[in-house]
Specification:
By secondary structure, the chain is α/β, with parallel strands linked by helices. The protein has 16 helices and 12 strands. The strands form 3 sheets. It has a 7-stranded mixed sheet. The chain has a 3-stranded antiparallel sheet with strand order 3-12-11, with no helix packed on it. Strand 11 and strand 12 form a beta hairpin. Helix 7 crosses helix 15 and helix 11 packs parallel to helix 14.
Length: 392
């Protein structure tokens, strides 16, 4: 059965689940009232393994609506995912406190995006690639004194090795930004000191709420903003600075707290410009489109994934992309044109909470952005010191 052949009730359930915070009562009610059958539910889960989260699926199994055998045989779910049902999901601790000042000499790579955009998972997959894909980075040495070291170790536990079955991390704390310092050695033996900075997802939301005068308790959001101002506005380093804007594929029409992603991203980008970050402290800008494992059926004949995601962001995030293109032209970033757009996924995601990790797209970002944009130095301490002196 294709989605075109779904009953009206099945299509209505799909639309409702896309907006419904608590899916289980809705499914139970539709089953009890016989608007849909168990067979319909199996079909929906077969066609979309991320229709509902793991907690809902586990509850359906516990109540006898579905069995684990049904999930494997009828819904074609990987037995590795089925075996994880009922296990505790991963929560991220507020490890490390707030960022102080960024170390001099490290290329700074900032990740921006709203909650649920896939930013934290993207960072976890990138760290796994940097640690394990030896054809890209031959050696990764974490800077244990960096503020985000504890956060990095949590992500390493979530994403241990390529192709492992993982439980995806929960939302990171609202008030906290994380700075992860690394030394990366490339295949030519050059060392790249970098700091990966995960900016709180709620930060762009807070900037939008301030702009429209929305009232609320934003103490944690204000703390995230204070960190941003401290490291990028009040005390910026002379380090190279790269900004990665993360947008989510397939949810462009879904609102987060009554507002579309495009508006949050546009407001945040405007704030970066108004603070002088783009014109004074930006060496490169990229766009990562996450969760692109869902895009392959949408590819036009002969279209590459890179072409597709570029067309996707231009069509679905017009205000953000239009403004980004304008600022790149105005401040001579990325040669004055639209920044490169990268497709990104973390592998096979199931029940919204589980994943069989695949670092293929992370490897591309690691090679082309993290290594490609960061300064590489000789391992010889004297040569490295002289290079840094003459660069300054």
């Amino acid at each position: 059965m294709t989605k075109d052949n779904y009953t009206i009730e099945m299509k209505a359930l799909c639309r409702a689940l896309d907006q419904e915070a608590d899916a289980l009562p809705l499914i139970q009610r539709l089953l009890d009232e016989r608007h849909i059958s168990v067979a319909d539910l199996k079909t929906l889960l077969r066609d979309d393994h991320n229709l509902v989260d793991a907690g809902v699926v586990h509850s359906l199994v516990r109540s006898g609506v579905l069995t684990k055998e049904d999930l494997v045989a009828d819904c074609h779910v990987d037995p590795g995912f089925v075996g994880m049902l009922g296990s505790m999901l991963t929560s991220m601790d507020d490890a490390g406190g707030n960022i102080g000042l960024i170390d001099g000499g490290n290329t700074e790579i900032y990740l921006w995006g709203i909650p649920s955009s896939g930013k934290t998972c993207a960072l976890g997959a990138l760290l796994c690639s940097l640690r394990t894909d030896k054809d890209v980075v031959t050696r990764m040495v974490p800077q244990s004194t960096s503020q985000g070291y504890g956060y990095m170790t949590q992500l390493e536990q979530v994403f241990p090795v390529n192709h492992a079955v993982c439980k995806l991390p929960g939302r990171t704390p609202t008030k906290t930004n994380f700075a992860i310092g690394l030394e990366l050695e490339d295949s030519n033996g050059r060392v790249h000191p970098v700091t990966l900075i995960d900016m709180a997802g709620e930060l762009f939301c807070y900037l939008h709420w301030m702009a429209v005068g929305k009232v609320g308790d934003y103490e944690d959001h204000r703390k995230a903003l204070e960190t941003f101002l401290r490291i990028l506005v009040d005390n910026p380093t002379e380090n190279r600075k790269i900004h990665l804007f993360v947008v989510e594929y397939g949810r462009e029409g879904k609102k987060y707290k009554d507002t579309l992603q495009d508006k949050y991203l546009t407001t945040g980008l405007t704030y970066l410009k108004n603070c002088g970050v783009l014109q004074n402290h930006t060496d490169g800008v990229y766009v990562l489109v996450t969760k692109t494992d869902k895009m392959h059926q949408a590819l036009a004949p002969g279209e590459t994934p890179e072409e597709h995601v570029t067309r996707f962001v231009e069509g679905n995030y017009p205000n953000f992309i239009g403004l980004l293109r304008r600022y790149c032209r105005e401040f001579e970033i990325c040669g004055g044109s639209l920044p490169p757009v990268f497709p990104f996924d973390i592998g096979d995601v199931c029940f919204q909470n589980f994943c069989r990790l695949n670092t293929d797209t992370a490897k591309v970002v690691a090679r082309e952005i993290i290594l490609g944009e960061s300064k590489g130095f000789s391992k010889n301490p004297l040569v490295r010191k002289l290079t840094q002196i003459f660069d300054n």
